[in-house]
Design a protein that fits this description.
- The protein is an alpha+beta fold.
- The protein has 18 helices and 19 strands.
- The strands form seven sheets. The chain has a five-stranded mixed sheet with strand order 17-18-16-15-19, sandwiched between helices. A four-stranded mixed sheet has the order 3-2-1-6. A two-stranded antiparallel ribbon has the order 4-5.
- Helix 12 runs antiparallel to helix 15, helix 13 packs across helix 15 and helix 15 crosses helix 16.
- The termini are far apart.
- The relative contact order is 0.11.
C-alpha cells in the first residue's frame, strides 16, 4: 500500500444498529470496508425506555479491534439524546431514549415561556417532542439532572470514554434546539428563559477539530498501537451523510434514509420564516458553514416495527411480494406522531387507512407497500416544499443511507420525481470518482402520485 494512503475508523451508530467502517484514503482512491456491525437494542426498564450505552460502547471497542491499525477515529450517531456525568465523570444512569414518554405535553409548558414562533426564530429547529430542549425541561425535577455536572451528547459521550476528553460537536449540538443557526453558537436567551444551564455542556467543537487520543486502556483492549488520535466529525449522522452526497455544482436535494428519513436541501444560510416553521422544516448545521434545511419523516421505522411484529420474516422475500401489490392503493401520513411510539405498528397503519376511508391493507405485503408508497409521498412533498420555502430549485435528488439498499423504496421515490427539476467539494469529487452509484430514472404516472397526496392533504 502506498505511503500516501491512510486508514480511518468511522464509528456510525444508528437507532437500530451500529457499525465500524474502515476507510483507506489516498489522493485518488477511497476504499470502504465494514469491519464490524452490532445491534442497537433499547431496553425498557421500570423507569422507561433506555439506550444500552454499555452494549454500544462494547460494540465500538470490538469494531476498533477488528479494524486494525488506523490513523484516526471518528464517531457519529443519532441526534438529541445524551448522558449525564457526575463530578467524578461517572455516568448517571443509562441515557433516556428519545421515544420515551417523558416529553409528552412538555412542549406546551415550553411555549408558555418561549412561544413557538419565538423559539423557531431563535433556533430554526422544527418541532419534535424529543428535541433535547424538551427532554431537559422534562427532566428538570429529576435527581439525575440535579446531580449532573456535565451533559454529553451520545457521540461525545463515547468519545469521552475513548479519550478522557470532553467536548460538544456542533452539528449534533444544533439538534438540541439551543443553538442559533446564524451565529453557530449557543442561544443564551432561550436557555436562560427556560432555566437551562448551558454550563452543563462541554465546549463546542467543529468537525475536524482534535478530540483527544485513545486512552492506554482502550489501546490495550483493541490491540492498537498509540498514539491514535480521535477527530471530531459531523457527529450527527445526517450531517455526515449529507457531506457524503456525491454532488458537484448542480442544484441538488437529498433524502437520507434509515430508521428516520430526512429530506431537504443544503443551504448557505438558515430559513427562519413563519411559513417555514408552519411547514415544520428544520435548520441544522452541516460541514463547512452549511445549513441542512430539511424535514424529518418517520422513515423505515414504520417497516422495522412491522417486521418485528410479524416475527422477523425474510425482508428480501417481503419486498418482492410488496412489489407485486398495486401502487398507491392505500397511503398514510408518514410524519404523523401517531406512529412515533413502538408497538402495534401494522394495526396502527390499518387503523389510519380505515379512518381515512381507504382500503385497509391486510397482508404483510400490502402493509409494506403502503409504507413504502407513503414514505415516497412524504419525501416528494418535503423536497417540493423545501424548494418553495427556500426559493432554491433543484435538478437532481440524491438518496443516501441504509434505505438505499431497498431498491423498491428507491423506485418509489423516483416515481415521485416528476416536476422536481426546478475542503467539502473536493471530498465529494473523490466520492463521485471512487464510489459506485445507482441511478434511478423517473417512471410511472405522476398524476396518480398527486392524487394520492391529495388524499392525505384533504383529510
Amino acid at each position: 500500500m502506498s505511503a500516501a494512503v491512510k486508514s480511518y475508523a468511522a464509528v456510525d451508530l444508528g437507532a437500530s444498529s451500529g457499525r465500524v467502517m474502515v476507510g483507506r484514503v489516498g489522493p485518488d482512491s477511497l476504499e470502504l470496508t465494514e469491519a464490524h456491525r452490532f445491534p442497537n437494542r433499547p431496553v425498557r426498564t421500570p423507569e422507561g425506555l433506555r439506550w444500552d450505552i454499555l452494549g454500544l460502547y462494547g460494540g465500538v471497542l470490538e469494531g476498533l479491534r477488528a479494524a486494525g491499525q488506523v490513523d484516526s477515529v471518528g464517531i457519529d450517531s443519532w441526534a438529541v439524546d445524551y448522558g449525564l456525568l457526575d463530578a467524578d465523570g461517572a455516568l448517571l444512569g443509562n441515557p433516556v431514549h428519545y421515544r420515551d414518554a417523558r416529553t409528552e405535553s412538555v412542549a406546551e409548558k415550553v411555549w408558555a415561556t418561549v412561544p413557538a414562533e419565538e423559539l423557531y426564530a431563535a433556533t430554526g429547529l422544527q418541532y419534535a417532542p424529543f428535541n433535547t430542549l424538551y427532554q431537559l425541561v422534562a427532566a428538570r425535577s429529576s435527581a439525575q439532572l440535579a446531580h449532573a455536572e456535565r451533559l454529553l451528547l451520545i457521540p461525545d459521550l463515547l468519545t469521552y470514554w475513548l479519550t478522557g476528553e470532553q467536548g460538544t460537536e456542533l452539528t449534533n449540538a444544533s439538534t438540541t434546539q439551543l443553538i442559533d443557526p446564524r451565529t453557530r453558537e449557543w442561544s443564551r436567551d432561550v436557555a436562560s428563559r427556560l432555566g437551562i444551564d448551558l454550563g452543563l455542556f462541554a465546549p463546542l467543537r467543529r468537525p475536524g477539530d482534535p478530540a483527544g487520543v485513545l486512552r492506554p486502556d482502550v489501546l490495550e483492549e483493541t490491540g492498537l498501537r498509540g498514539p491514535v488520535p480521535v477527530t471530531a466529525v459531523g457527529s450527527h449522522d445526517t450531517a455526515s451523510a449529507v457531506a457524503a452526497v456525491p454532488a458537484g455544482d448542480e442544484r441538488f436535494a437529498y433524502i437520507c434514509t434509515g430508521t428516520w428519513s430526512l429530506a431537504g436541501l443544503e443551504l448557505d444560510a438558515p430559513v427562519l420564516t413563519e411559513e417555514s416553521r408552519a411547514a415544520n422544516f428544520t435548520n441544522e448545521l452541516g460541514l463547512d458553514g452549511t445549513v441542512r434545511y430539511l424535514r424529518n419523516i418517520m422513515g423505515l421505522w414504520l417497516l422495522q416495527e412491522c417486521v418485528r411484529a410479524w416475527g422477523d420474516p425474510d425482508l428480501g422475500a417481503l419486498l418482492l411480494d410488496a412489489a407485486k401489490v398495486p401502487t398507491l392503493r392505500s397511503v398514510v401520513d408518514a410524519g404523523d406522531a401517531a406512529f412515533l411510539a413502538p408497538g402495534r405498528m401494522p394495526d396502527r397503519i390499518a387503523e389510519a387507512c380505515r379512518a381515512s376511508g381507504q382500503p385497509v391493507p391486510e397482508s404483510p405485503a400490502e402493509v409494506t407497500r403502503c409504507i413504502l408508497d407513503s414514505l415516497a409521498l412524504a419525501h416528494r412533498r418535503a423536497v417540493e416544499d423545501a424548494q418553495r420555502l427556500a426559493d432554491h430549485p433543484v435538478d437532481v435528488v440524491y438518496v443516501v443511507g441504509g434505505g438505499t439498499r431497498n431498491a423498491l423504496l428507491c423506485h418509489c421515490l423516483l416515481y415521485t420525481s416528476h416536476g422536481l427539476v426546478g475542503d467539502l467539494a473536493g471530498m465529494r469529487r473523490l466520492l463521485t470518482r471512487t464510489q459506485p452509484l445507482t441511478r434511478y430514472e423517473p417512471r410511472g404516472d405522476a398524476e396518480r402520485w398527486r392524487e394520492a397526496q391529495d388524499r392525505l392533504t384533504l383529510r
